[in-house]
Amino acid sequence: MCLITFAFNHHADYPLLLAANRDEFFARPTEPLHAWPEHPGLHAGRDLQAGGTWLGVYQPTGRIAALTNVRQIPAPPTTGPSRGQLVLDVLLDPRPLSEVLADLEPRKTEYQGFNLLLGDQQGLYCVSNHTPRAEPMAAGIHGLSNATLDVPWPKVRKACARMADWADRPGPVTELAALLLDPATAAPDELPATGLSPEWEKALSAQFIQLPEYGTRASTGLMIDRQGNLHLHEQTFDAEGRPGEANTVRLEGFW
What we know:
- This protein has helices at 83-92, 97-104, 154-168, 173-177, 198-204; strands at residues 3-11, 14-25, 30-35, 42-47, 55-58, 63-69, 114-120, 123-128, 135-136, 140-144, 214-224, 230-237, 243-251.
- By secondary structure, the chain is an alpha+beta fold.
């Protein structure tokens, strides 16, 4: 997952509104959003290479989790536990959220760079191994990409602005899932300097990334209404940017 914007306790009727894009190599085997039969109540896509997920919800605990990678150039060795497995682990952990966060804190450096948005009825937190501690989310609109929370990369600013506009007049979750489909790239003087070539920085500055081997493979919308019902929709895309499989989940009494 490479771009997330969310409105937390911002709209009177929706405690949480979230839109997210997953960017990945098209050759990486993946299952779209589905119910995991081995974990009743878990709804998520599945990374078939490492076994984890990038965004999911778990009804028994009312927990949601979403991941972005932190860009590190040069990339560290691909040893240690999978970041996608971390998402799965925190979703399925039966302990209170405070204990899950406390347990993760001393272990987060074992993983490659990540940001983890994690929450339930008790609160919403952003955990990163590039910040000192888990940060409780204040009410409002936030953005997250491949730097830390609310770093104002152009596509993050644009995503937050679109969420602010959309949250004023919320529509169906399918519409929310389509919030981040803009393929426009940032101006050269606005590009972040993360160590990539200018060509790559420009290509990756789009919300909806389209490269021959890498790009936006799924867009997701998530809504939790004031009655505690969860609405989740994922739209997948192929290497040409064409819509593929779409899946919708509604869970009553999630929160």
